Amino acid sequence: MDPASQLPLLLGLAWLTPLASFVAILFFGPRMGPQGKNAAWVATAAIVASLLFSLVAFGIWLEAHPVQVAAHDLHAADSHDSHDSHAKPQDSADAPREPVAAGPIAYSGDWYTLYETGNETGNLKLSIGWYIDALTVMMFVVVTLIASCIHFYAAGYMSDELDAVTDHEVSLSAGGHLHRPGRFPRFFQALSLFCFSMLGIVIAGNLAMVFIFWELVGICSWFLIGFYYERQSAATAANKAFIVNRVGDFGMLIGLMAIWGALGTFHFADSTRTDADGVGSV
Fold first, then answer.
1. Which helix (H) or strand (E) element contains residue 172?
2. E strand or H helix at 132, and its extent?
3. What is the pTM of this model?
4. pLDDT tier at 135 (50, 70, 90 boundaries)?
5. Distance between CA atoms of 149 and 146, rounded to whole angstroms?
6. What's phi and psi for 174, nearest 5 deg?
7. Comparison of pLDDT for 176 and 273, the residue scoring more
8. Confidence of residue 38 (pLDDT cuts 50, 70, 90)
9. Is 82 helix (H, G, I), strand (E, B) or coil?
């Protein structure tokens, strides 16, 4: 298999599958079984499929770029064995030289270019693209594995939302407690969008994508933290998280402007050396 073509396809599918789950639950969630019960299994099936895509991509990466013992470790082991056996040391001229370590392998490209222009200050290119290296592949497996566990747990934990809910933590001014319909599908709708946004950060090929998906992660966090928004504690916690994230966004925007001023680009691949096959090394 050619990793340059297979990895973007597999990780792209792993990234977009939770988005498909979000759209399906958004439009058909209440009709997915009694009280939308099957929305949990739609979301869970989507993230498990993403995990499978990620594992296949991980296998392709290992096949194309097998893990190797560092050359200096092998040389040290050989020297240690030679010392223990009291063998005559080799002359420095005959000693094997350590190979120069190549930079990390990375694959990059664009699925779709939204806007591109060039001037004396740099090349402004806004695109939906990917940047895949060993860390990207590993993080896809980690994120989808943990998210799959969360989905399985949440399917049972949120089961109270399948029926009408009486929230004893919310007291009405007229007396009594809040009675409301269950919001079971809405939770998994937000969780699917959160996973899509998180994976978007991992696969992003440029800082503009990172910023956009970081914002989406913040919005999804606001929805999830404030899921029980009738409760004052949940509403306060959600607003606090939202405000803190916006403060962080200000620093991130300053960093983006500094990077643009220094490099004239937002694309990660522009800081790598790329060969004819689209494979880059830092």
1. none
2. strand 122-133
3. 0.82
4. very high
5. 5
6. -85, 0
7. 176
8. very high
9. helix
pLDDT of residue 244: 92
Residue given tokens 């949440």 in the structure block: 154
**3-state secondary structure at position 175:** coil
CA-nearest of 193, 185, 126 to 154 is 185
Helix, strand or coil, per DSSP, at residue 102: coil
Which residues have CB under 8 Å from 270's CB, separation 6+?
A: 123, 263
Distance CA 163, CA 265 (A): 52
- pLDDT value of position 242: 92
Q: Which amino acid belongs to residue 280?
A: G
Residue 31 half-sphere exposure toward CB, CA atoms < 13 A: 4
Contact 279, 103 (CB under 8 A): no
At residue 123, the pLDDT reads 67
- The identity of residue 114, as a single letter, is L
pLDDT digits (tens, 9 = 90+) for 193-202: 999 999 999 9
3-state secondary structure of 20: helix
Query: Do residues 38 and 28 lie in contact, with contact meaning Cβ atoms separated by under 8 Å?
Result: no
Backbone angles phi, psi at 67, to 5 degrees: -70, 130
d(CA 108, CA 141): 19
- Are 186 and 124 in contact by the 8 Å Cβ rule? The answer is no
Strands 177-180 and 122-133: unpaired
How many other CB atoms are there within 10 angstroms of residue 194's CB atom? 21
